[in-house]
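Sync notes, pocket subgroup
Present: LS, DG
LS reminded everyone that the earlier model was apo-only. Rerun requested with zinc ion included. Inputs:
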Amino acid sequence: MQKINLLITLTVFSLITLPTYGQKDAYNNNKFKQLDQELPTPNSYRTGSGAPGHKYWQQKADYTIEALLDEEKNQLHGKETITYTNNSPDNIKYLWVQLDQNMRATNSNTYKIRQNRIDEKANSRYFESISGYPNYDGGHKILEVKSKEGEDIPYVINQTMMRVDMPQELKPGEHFSFNIKWYYNINNRKLMGGRGGYETFKDGNTLYTLTQWFPRMAVYDDVNGWQNKQFLGRGEFALAFGDYDVKLTVPDDHIVASTGSLQDSTVLTETQRERLEEAKYSNKPIEIVTKKEAIKNEKKKGKGTKTWHYKADNVRDFALGSSRKFIWDAMGVEQNDKIVMAMSYYPKDAYNLYNRYSTEAIAHTLEVYSRMTFDYPYPVAISVEAENGMEYPMICFNYGRQDEEGNYSSRIKYGMLSVVFHEVGHNYFPMIVNSDERQWTWMDEGLNSFLQFVAEQEWEWNYPSQEGFPDNIIEYMEGVPEGMSPIMTNSESIKQFGWNAYSKPSVALNVLRETIMGRELFDYAFKEYAQRWKFKHPTPADFFRTMEDASGVDLDWFWRGWFYTTEACDISIAEVITMQLDTQDPNKEMTHLKALENDKRPTITEINNQKEGLETRVSKNENLKDFYNTDYKYSVYQDDLDKYKKYQNSLNEKDKEWMESNKYVYQVNFENVGGLVMPIIIELNFEDGSKDKKYIPAEIWKKDDKIVSKVFVTDKKVTSFFLDPNRETADIDTSNNHFPRRNSVNRFQLYKSKK
Ligand SMILES: [Zn+2]
């Protein structure tokens, strides 16, 4: 109660002193205010419904690449022809090409802007990483940029971006082809980290994952013009769709895993081809290269080379894995009218987990994700074990190795399953629903982590999901505001990256699905978003708008609270007032008053007088004693009975019925302590042991987002109230979720006391 009084006093005070500010704040701070100022104005490219507009366009970039993997020098040499098609309504003067390897060049800004601190422990590797690696000459070495006719084309390299100055402006509908020749020193992934690179095993053999390995076109769109923000290492990629024709030459005993479909199967043995055909119609994975064969391969080093030729249509990127250590298994997965090959490639160090689970996990991912979005459109889905986690179209790199004895912990097993669901899942977001990762990490990581959670929970009962359950983010949400960023923050500026861009948005979507919208409305709207934007470039507004457009639920308050602020949910049952009906029946009411009087304890003066055995004047003098007993106060007189009869006659039948029904009435006052507005989910526990869960939509906070009241009328007596019993809201303080309050039990440790 005190809090309410205080609040009213403060409000009145501020209204008197600064009335205009008060009103402005009431407007700006309203948690249900529509997102008009935050979202861009709709236009003919992107509509107010969140769908692509009737003039939506996007660019296309096709690649023909020939590359050589030099295992001796750990170098990649390549030449490519890029054909860029201008589907925009604009004349384009220059092209921007991404040279992502330059993030590791010696002059890279990534090293310069990295904050360093000396902690208690530091080693030589730490000091190397501060300023780059002195013995590593990283970066794309551009050897030439030439026209189709063989003429030099001027270009300027600015860190990870290269501007190519075309001989003349590229008009709408035209395309421009040019050639680039380059090489780079592949990074040691185990030493320097990285999404791709090489790993050398104890036996001297190497496993390559080739990523961001060729100069790639930047995105030009209606939102940013050129998306040429530098690649600093964290904010990932923005890429255009296109068709790829890639020939990679590797040592002839290597097995190559790749985006796309293999064009020339003569790189495979007759046996391998037969096994692949068998795997296509098998309901369990078939080994194309067995463990025994892989062990044999890694013992000898081939002298010649082989060229693996792959093609992929309508992809935004292209990646490969190559090693003589690969074991390879495959299984066909039906996606409506076609068969997708789910395939895994792994060294023997990961055999015990990957042989058993990897390809099955791919198949499971395709099943769940396709149901929630659209049929998987590509011919293959590949998981490569490379002791990391990174995604590309049709292929991803994952982790999970057994120990020396061949055992693995359940932590490694579930980590491995989750990373496969996650990275294979990235095929949908952002490889097909092609958002701008350089700007927004949550649009692919958040949506993907949410679907990963759905897949996990459908893999096995009690799957230990690390992301998705509201409880999973409480630890983060109760942190200090200075250490947090809203989800709507540029990738490079995000504080607590994993919590912000993966965990929180995945919980937000799960809360929308299970609690706020319900599965029917959510699943339809989410699928609609995926279908509207597959093979296109969506922005946050397109997602926010589509979710509302397809469900009929106003979610602006939810996006505002969860995506534009760092507020947490903490709702408290501030007070429960039990209301009783004043019957006005003198007999009943006198009994009630008497009970109240009897409930009173003696005063301290009475107690002390009695203790002293005080003799009062009346107790000493019989004549002073009154003949009434103390009950005279509660006597019922004819007057009162007449008044009551008159009152009864004034009531209609319905009122009388209600009066005799013996209902229980409770007014519950809720306080929003955390700031984030959320639905109130409250369980009423009755005297007879039964329960009733009530759901009050978040809109109850529309006029007052601090304190609201709700009256509950029940037939049975309520013994306790319990907020959010199924842990749906990520409420950061549950000690105020019970009424009456519960004793909270904390645990402490006893230390041996010193003598
Ligand atoms: Zn991811």
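DG: The first helix runs from residue 2 to 17.
LS: Confidence is low (pLDDT under 50) at residues 1-20.
Action: DG to write up.
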